[in-house]
User: Fold this.
Amino acid sequence: MTGLVPTSVPLLRAAAEPAPERWQPGARHADFDRDGFADLVVSNEDTVRVIYGSASGLRSERNQRWTLADLPSAPADEELGGASTAVGDFDGDRYTDLAVTAVGLHILYGSSTGLSVSRARYLPLLMDSGFPALAVGNFGNGPEADLAVGQSYVDVGKASDAGAVDVVYGSPS
Ligand SMILES: [Ca+2]
Ligand SMILES: [Ca+2]
Ligand SMILES: [Ca+2]
Assistant:
């Protein structure tokens, strides 16, 4: 067989269970450790996982898994509540970084050893209860990648559920 070869990997066991209404899996890829192999990010209602690529494909040895409780500076007693993810080099060090929205915005920075919560940043953006829409690009204000966070139901002033877009500009580490 040539071309695409289907291989089933049981990444999201929760998918076999009844899905809450808001359940929405997310998948991204980027080379967080710059070893030349793409690494895979999968997220669901309450968990973000990273599976690192290798010469022999995605390998489980270096798997990472975070819930909200693992992310630094996040408010306690909250559920992840809908993690959206996006990737970009937000600090311009050539390692791709991971943005995770969960009760605010978390940036996990890439490095030669991959992503680490010990090198993460938390921005307490006001979040609504849905899955924010994320877009990455260099919108200007420095060469680093920037992040736009769109939310449908966030209140703006006296306008409830008005919706808003926050833009977070990257900056050197
Ligand atoms: Ca990699
Ligand atoms: Ca970076
Ligand atoms: Ca920029």
